[in-house]
Design brief:
178 residues; mainly alpha; 7 helices
Amino acid sequence: YKAGDMTVLKEENTIYLILIIFLTVASYTDLKYSKVYNIWILAASVPAVYINTYKFFVWAGISIACSFILYLCKMVAAGDIKLIAYIYGLLGPSSANILILISLSIAAIYALYFLLSKKILYSRLIYFKEYLCKCMKSKNIYEYYDSKNDDKSLTMPLAQWFLIGCIVWRVYKLCIVM
């Protein structure tokens, strides 16, 4: 290794350590209280802004703008959008895209397992098809999930999957370096 390579690796390790700590706390509160607290996001943003300066706000803002439609449809919660924004703000788009893809892929595998084990995959696919038809016919966006009427067990906190995806991505990257 050259001295410059080690410096980059140390900086990257610091960034991923910050992200893993952030996602660990967010996972805990998301699983326990179904909430990712704004105060935690603000506190965790201090080192992220220090590391990435204005780029943190640029990438976080772009990710919020891109994922806002999912929030409007009630397909993801506001806390999930904030988690994604934090990941983009801290890592930048190239690493964040990979981390999000890995995380959501792992979550999708689990969701498929869950739906198959509960024998509700078909009914959920029909529900989704009807939702899409309703939106297209009326040319409006409706809530996909109604917290007052829909089964709470059908929601899936995403913070834990972002944490798992982050750990998988980091371990993979470290194995490539060695």
